[in-house]
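Reopening this one. Same input as before:
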Amino acid sequence: MIEKFARESYTEMNELVLPNDTNTFGNLK
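Same output, byte for byte:
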């Protein structure tokens, strides 16, 4: 559960900085 939370936080951070990269990570999930 901790890893999942970390991934979500990391994704949110990327959305603020690089929305495109975040979209790519979302597809990899």
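So the earlier flakiness isn't reproducible anymore. For the record, The chain has one domain: 1-29.
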